[in-house]
């Protein structure tokens, strides 16, 4: 017989729960993937009751999905919602919650990272971490610490109350379909694997650009910056997927073991080398958009970076000598997340005398806005004269109207089913901090000034100095 499950969201009235978690759970309902005896317990301080909370949630979902809404699924989902009024710091709230839960339970911390300790300690004190009445799983969002020391401290705290098998450190990027498709693309297709190494690949780029600025998160962002917010988590995870060796099996531990090997193999950046291996900048007012320093809530004279770029090297047999360029920025020219792999030129340029055939081959993995796998190759142009042109070979979901899985939809289902494959083990977090900490320390000493770039552009031109060798340039999007 199917067991009952309670999905408890702490911070249920916040932005993450309203815009990501509740929509993802509704879509799982519409897809018929939620267990029969499953309820969503929404823990918050505001004075809702079940009826008013359900009405608010239904209205928000209808506004989000419009005529794509499945009314029957929405009604079923609304019946699963329960509102639990409580205070994160109040021990009695957790005792009342414990009395209401006698089943398997997920505890999702959709709260500020500074509130993780009080929630986990209160959960444990109330007996909610105990699994005598069913399994208990804890989901924590990034940022996991703001440096290695704070991450270690948070990890010790979590492990004092929960076993590692109970902890799900979520990185929503790993739930995106194209990111998951990297596994299939690399390890299910023999055509690419022989080329996936230093003998054939010139370099790899990983880009994440956002049109938006800090958008009401100025206080958080001014104390975090692009390197902590995006590179330490999302972009280094993408790097591990591109660079990892084939795992022994597609189980969680085998996959995570290989990702950790990649992070361990990244050549350390000495603080004295940060100026040549890393670049930072801040968006300035342009095209009617305010600069970072004009955003409400940003400290006067802040040198927090809204753009960060790194050149990394992986010192192992497969990748030695191949640079990996990583960059992220806010107020860029478009929303774009892209993995771009450039291949080397043929050893003999047969068409050099004709002036054709000189463009390199690229493999592009679009993550957003389009989810696509694209190979760029040279082909002969029809006609009497020998000329070539770029041809694009697309795979995946380019131009398809098929169902698209949302990132949180996949990840929440994995939590419910107990699959850790797309979640971070602590040693992944630890080694990622070790990669960027020397850069953070170097930038922390340079508090006087920071380069700028015009809002609405692809970032500062000077970031191109990270490129080694001639003829390298940033690939910004699939439309380039």
TrEMBL record:
Q: Which residues form the active site?
A: 234 (proton acceptor)
Instruction: Enumerate the residues binding substrate.
Output: 172, 176, 210, 229, 330
- For the Glucose-6-phosphate dehydrogenase NAD-binding domain, which residue ranges apply? 8-181
Q: Which GO terms describe its molecular function?
A: glucose-6-phosphate dehydrogenase activity; NADP binding
Its biological function? Catalyzes the oxidation of glucose 6-phosphate to 6-phosphogluconolactone.
The family this protein is said to belong to:
Belongs to the glucose-6-phosphate dehydrogenase family.
State the protein's name: Glucose-6-phosphate 1-dehydrogenase
Q: What is the lineage of its organism?
A: Bacteria, Pseudomonadati, Pseudomonadota, Gammaproteobacteria, Methylococcales
- Gene designation per UniProt: zwf_1
